[in-house]
């Protein structure tokens, strides 16, 4: 790297540091930033001026002084730049228009209609995006980009959905399709990792730097945050927590083809299937009434509700699933030594009946005293976890300064990939 390029690189790192510092410490002065980050006063001033020009930081009045000039106080400015987040679910395409603090300004939801195929689903996604953009254009505000949460195995190196059992997609090129039809940056990632990002920027991440988000819904996945960064793995395929084998001789086949995966035992699908098998063998349960004798209609939610009403079959099925989940989570805690585990997804809506069993299993099985006391928390945003995560995909890029737009900053040219390549 040339001396000029390395100076630019250092400036970029320092700008990120200052922006993050201001976001984490509202009502702070330039002098205080300099004192607490160790950056020189002129460097901080120059960086802050750039960030103000770019609409990411604003002055909010003057603070008190112990003699001398009273300082201008600063804060992160969420209302000049906007983000669209899309939760591409198998039932609905749910989109939000949000500011940089993830406050929702507008929402759109339409049925996904997976059966119509990839292109139809993408066209419907574009409809949602365009409707949300309409709200923004009225305000003449800037859209940074569109983030999407997608269920499936995503290859980050090739930027494609390798396989999504929910959508029946193989090698789906979301960016290729949307990129030709939209003039805003789009990025997407696996729904669970995206949920973890949502927690990182807007939820438990404000308190913890090392935590794991476990999504227990139709399937099971984990989003792993290490030192404030998502763990991707070589191809971006880390976190397939649902496919660790917990029962070697299991007769229960997982969607991945293996037998005895955690997902086959503890996901919403797995719970419904286990209850169905019990009922088919002639066991008695109020579940038969709940699904009106049609076992195909049986859901994990029904099993949880029947268990809460004291139904023995339902309680056994649900408890067993939660216990396996707890065993898997104990392994995660032993492996990663996190500060917290965040549980989200449809099955976690069951509440205490799930959390109590997971917590007691972790207490019984995790290795050390510290591991046994790791906090196990419900996801911050409940049903909005995926869409909040989708917003965070773009927020991550904003905080990494990938969308800087002021002319003065372009002069520095430390934000574009092409400039990095030249060096
Ligand atoms: Zn599996």
Mean pLDDT: 89
Please give the count of helices: 16
Top CATH class of the largest domain: Alpha Beta
- Hetero groups: zinc ion
Distance between the termini: 5 Å
- Provide the helix percentage: 40-55%
- The largest sheet has its strands arranged as 6-5-4-7-11
Count every beta strand, where a strand is a DSSP E run of 2 or more residues. 16
C-alpha-based Rg, rounded = 24 Å
| Form type | globular
**Largest beta-sheet characterization:** 5 strands, mixed
Task: Explain what the structure shows.
With 423 residues, this protein is of the alpha/beta class. It folds into three domains: 3-77, Arc Repressor Mutant, subunit A, CATH 1.10.10.10; 81-199 and 385-399, 2-Layer Sandwich (Nucleotidyltransferase, domain 5); 204-379, ATPase, nucleotide binding domain (Nucleotidyltransferase, domain 5). It contains 16 helices and 16 strands. Strands 6-5-4-7-11 form a five-stranded mixed sheet, with helices on both faces. Strand 4 (81-88) and strand 5 form a beta hairpin. The model is unreliable at 407-423 (pLDDT under 50).
How would you summarize the topology of this molecule?
Elements: H1 3-24, E1 28-29, H2 30-37, H3 41-53, E2 57-62, E3 72-76, E4 81-88, E5 92-99, E6 104-111, H4 118-139, E7 142-150, E8 153-155, E9 160-164, E10 169-172, H5 174-179, E11 186-190, H6 191-202, E12 211-216, E13 220-226, E14 229-230, H7 262-266, H8 268-280, H9 287-290, H10 300-308, H11 312-336, E15 340-344, H12 352-365, H13 369-372, E16 375-378, H14 385-399, H15 407-412, H16 417-422
This protein binds zinc ion.
Zinc ion binds at residues 243, 254, 256, 258, 261, 263.
């Amino acid at each position: 790297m040339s001396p000029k390029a390395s100076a630019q690189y250092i400036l970029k790192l320092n700008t990120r540091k200052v922006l993050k510092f201001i976001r984490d410490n509202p009502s702070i002065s330039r002098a205080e930033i300099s004192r607490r980050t160790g950056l020189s006063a002129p460097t901080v001033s120059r960086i802050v001026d750039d960030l103000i020009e770019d609409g990411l930081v604003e002055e909010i009045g003057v603070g008190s002084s112990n003699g001398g000039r009273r300082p201008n106080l600063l804060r992160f400015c969420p209302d000049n730049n906007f983000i669209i987040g899309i939760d591409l679910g198998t039932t609905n395409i749910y989109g939000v228009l949000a500011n940089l603090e993830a406050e929702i300004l507008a929402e759109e939801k339409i049925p996904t209609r997976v059966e119509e195929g990839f292109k139809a689903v993408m066209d419907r996604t574009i409809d949602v995006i365009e409707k949300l953009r309409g709200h923004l254009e009225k305000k003449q505000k800037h859209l940074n980009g569109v983030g999407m949460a997608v269920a499936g195995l995503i290859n980050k190196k090739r930027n494609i959905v390798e396989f999504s059992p929910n959508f029946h997609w193989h090698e789906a090129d979301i960016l290729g399709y949307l990129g030709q039809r939209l003039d805003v940056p789009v990025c997407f990632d696996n729904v669970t990792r995206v949920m973890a990002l949502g927690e990182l920027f807007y939820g438990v991440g404000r308190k913890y730097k090392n935590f794991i988000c476990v999504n227990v819904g139709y399937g099971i996945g984990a989003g792993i945050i290490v030192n404030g960064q998502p763990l991707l793995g070589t191809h971006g395929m880390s976190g397939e927590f649902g496919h660790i084998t917990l029962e070697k001789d299991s007769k229960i086949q997982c969607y991945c083809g293996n037998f005895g995966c955690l997902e086959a035992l503890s996901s919403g699908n797995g719970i419904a299937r286990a209850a169905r098998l019990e009922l088919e063998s002639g066991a008695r349960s109020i579940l038969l009434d709940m699904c009106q004798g049609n076992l195909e209609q049986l859901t994990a939610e029904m099993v949880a509700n029947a268990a809460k009403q004291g139904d023995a079959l339902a309680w056994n099925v649900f408890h067993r699933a939660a216990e396996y989940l707890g065993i898997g989570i104990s392994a995660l805690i032993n492996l990663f030594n996190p500060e917290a585990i965040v549980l989200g997804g449809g099955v976690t809506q069951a509440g205490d009946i799930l959390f109590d069993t997971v917590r007691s299993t972790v207490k019984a099985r995790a290795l050390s005293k510290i591991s046994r006391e790791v906090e196990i928390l419900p996801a911050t945003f409940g049903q909005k976890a995926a869409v909040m995560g989708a917003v965070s995909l773009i927020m991550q890029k904003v905080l990494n300064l990938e969308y800087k737009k002021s002319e003065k900053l372009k002069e520095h040219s430390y934000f574009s990939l092409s400039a990095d390549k030249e060096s």
